[in-house]
Fold this protein.
Amino acid sequence: MLAAGLRYARRNVSLVVGAVFLLILVLFVGLGHLFVNTSRSRPLSVPALRPPSWENPFGTDRQGRDLLAVMVAGTPLTLRIGFVAGFLGVGLGSLLGFVSAYYRGKLDTVIRGIVDIGLTVPGLLVLIIIAVSIKEGLTVDQMAIVVASLAWLNPTRTIRAQVLSLRERAYVEVARLSGMSGPAIIVKELMPNLLPYLAATLVNSVSNAILASVGLEVLGLGPIDAPTLGMTLYWVNYNAALINGWWWWWVAPIAIILIVFLGLFFLTVGLDELANPRLRSAV
Amino acid sequence: MPVDYLAKRFGVFLLIVWIAATLNFFLPRLSGQDPVRVKLLQQAQLGGYVQAGIDAMVKEYDRRFGLDQPLWVQYLAYLHDAARLDFNYSIANYPRTVNEIIAEAIPWTIGLLGATTLLSFGIGTFLGALLAWPRAPRWIRFLLPPLWALHAIPFFLFGLILMYLLAFRITVLPMFGGYSAGAFPALTLDFAADVLKHSILPAMSIVLVATGGWALTMRGMMVTTQGEDFVTFAEAKGLKSLTIFLHYCARNAILPQTTGLALALGQILSGAVLVEVIFAYPGIGTVLYHAIRENDHFLIQGIVFTVIVALGLATLILDAIYPLLDPRISYRKA
């Protein structure tokens, strides 16, 4: 079992690279919570604007936060926004995608129409309107729900396309002729075959959700008190840390965001390959 | 029947505009916030005291902005205004109108977005075609992993890194703005050069990220096209490999790329908005950023609506000319 897994890992390098990146993050957050005092991620808890030292390995920002503590406390918050929004999006998206593609008809036309129109609109701008409307005291979880409000569009479309091709296969036809009900076919016959594909869609939509939330946060529409990665970048921009030469302030959040995005990206590519082995010869 | 097709596409465009206007109208009202009151209170506090007559003032402003009417009257009035692209005054920059502010910013964004989209589309499509071509020089292959990785990085993060390297460490390029402070916008060569110099960094951060996406999809299409029978037939006829590459493979693979253009435009725009904020580029994104910081609801709504209409138009135009490019798609079927 293990040997077979290792052999597959050698063929699917992207999956391994993605997993390793995310493992590094988990270790950083896990060990960080053990050894770093996260209460120092609050303003005024340490001297302001210190470059990295033994005392503050990542330096401190202008409001007196220890940046290592901010990263340890903020990375899981950013990931949480991504995962909550991603799960909600893929959950709703697969429900709509399966129903739409399996039953076809008027329902399908309506769902497809909404998705097609929704996808031509720039998501970030619509999210800005939503976030501005409920701006006062946005929490991390509310942020996730705001992002999720558009996160189902893409999954609905891609899952619908997959189900459309699957539903014509012979074994689905057999199931239908043997008197299985629609929901039963969706759950027992279609879902298991799409699991790797659903996983890839999930990782992809988590990544998109994080991108959207960081974008909103950089514009100043995030949870103001939370030390998320995007809010850290907002303060970086707000205080013009770059032209003041406070490089340590933005290097840490950017490095972590890069690891998050590259990790999720390689994981999606790896899962895609797992889901659709025909890609193997092409990559 | 092209008329049917165009009419249907135009209907979809109108639907998008209507939905955008409706969301713009109802979402802020669902929150139960009162932008006018908030703004007046803020200004009163800036003055150091809260006026006793603030309620009367709010009422007066509400009357002026038509906010004292029943909701459906307001909605109809709003739709009427939106149809004439009239978005009222900016709350933060009164008495400037939202339209004036947008009109000033939009050429910058269209210039930046137009240039970067064309560049990244061109370079990416060309690279993608080469990446899939077996007879391309070997070193091209080494471009794939970096292109791939770049494509996963948010535009504005890349902008920050570029800014640090090329404008702060080595000061070869200007850091902020659309033109040098003190320069006066005029149609001179000097000013044009100045604008160009200021746009290099923001443009670079968009192009480097977006190119990867185009290259990847083009490569995928090329791989599929190369397997088709007509390519095998062309090879059997003994045609030159450059001819096969250009006229048989690339010509057919590029068509789906153009369909992706409209969808990608929306994404690139979202990215460009943030890039503008990072570089304080005087386009829509920067205006939006300041509008958000100043709670200027009318300006925010005006910008979002304008952008959605502009993108809808771009999609409509692309949809209309697409069948001209690809004879395999008839107007009726699409």
